[in-house]
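INFO batch 0412 | record 1 of 1 | parsing
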Amino acid sequence: MKKTIFIVLSVAMIFSLTSCFPSHELKETAIVQAIAVDLTDEGYELTLQFYAPKGSGATTAIDTSNNNANIVVAKGKTITEAVDQATAIQGEYIFTGNNRLLIIGERFAKEGVESLFSYFDRNHLTTQNIDVLVSEGPAKEIVSVNIDQGILAAEMLEKIVENCEENGMILRCPYYMFSQNMFQYEGSSVVPVIEKTGGQEEQSEDQGTESGDSSVSESIQSVDVVKIEKTAVFKDYKLADIVDKECSQGLAFLSNTVKEATLVAEDANGHLSSINLYSCDAKLKPEFQDDQITFVLQIKSKASIDEVLLPAGEYTGLDELEIFAQSAERLIADECTRAFNRVVKEDQSNILYLGDLIHKNNPKLWTAIQNDFPAHLEKLHFRTEVDVDITRLSIEANQAQNKNK
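INFO prediction complete | emitting tokens
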């Protein structure tokens, strides 16, 4: 009898845990690829880029020569209201589970982004590893960009971010890191900046036929161009600063995210060399002397010479190798020092987990300063110890090339 009652209750419990979830046909679903959030005088302006295949016929669902996307712009007093408005405009269920990019407008960033987390942290469809970017100007202009490459503009923008990170140019910021840093480090974070640089001018070329009686005009379509090389610095949830290309690369070194990078080194005679850093290891650690805290960045990198601009008849030897290595070391040290002084000491943004490093190495001191640690940022000292080892193989290859000439 007990066994029968147990089975009946178990079955009843199973059915009580089920529910009917709304389902949507794919043809009734708008798949979001990029989201831009801007702040206006009336509230929030949301720009959504949807996947919209533009096939050329029944046998071709996707035409790679077209930008397979549609744009919808909606406004609301809250982000949720703007999303509802976008649904009404689009006429389809909006699915954000495949979103690639979240772009924050400059005005929104300057006035504070707390409300962003209120919506996206609560939304179960928020993809945690989407790339977060800050635009110079309205984010709407970036999501609406006309990049005539690939299948989707959002896909190409995501690839640009990936390439910049792989080449050691920026510090990439997925959403989960952006949200975590903001809440754990006094509203501090760094985010890549994307800017629209304008479109290529439409060009036309008249080509005469063999008879010379007529001509055919061929035009090159105008496409928009974007670049990512600057970095937005947040403090107290607000955009505090935008740093340049050199500081952005310095932040990448400081955070030990540089996998590969190219530097242009110079010798005493002004000869240039492209140095490829193919291995880089950076460690940031604090040193303590009385009340003074000095952060020391140790970088060890292996490199090769990809190109040397020398007069005819000259070739790169061991002495030149050492000179170019020292030049590369100075470049890295200068970039890291500029980045630390600008972001940490001037902007006072706690984005390098410096408090955690102090706590780990000197718990007693951390206990004394943790409550007002942001005020201590401008008092921190910094120095670098950079070692670039250029492999001999690149020198031998360069010598052989010059001898063959």
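INFO post-check: The chain has two domains: 26-199+227-243, 248-405.
INFO record closed
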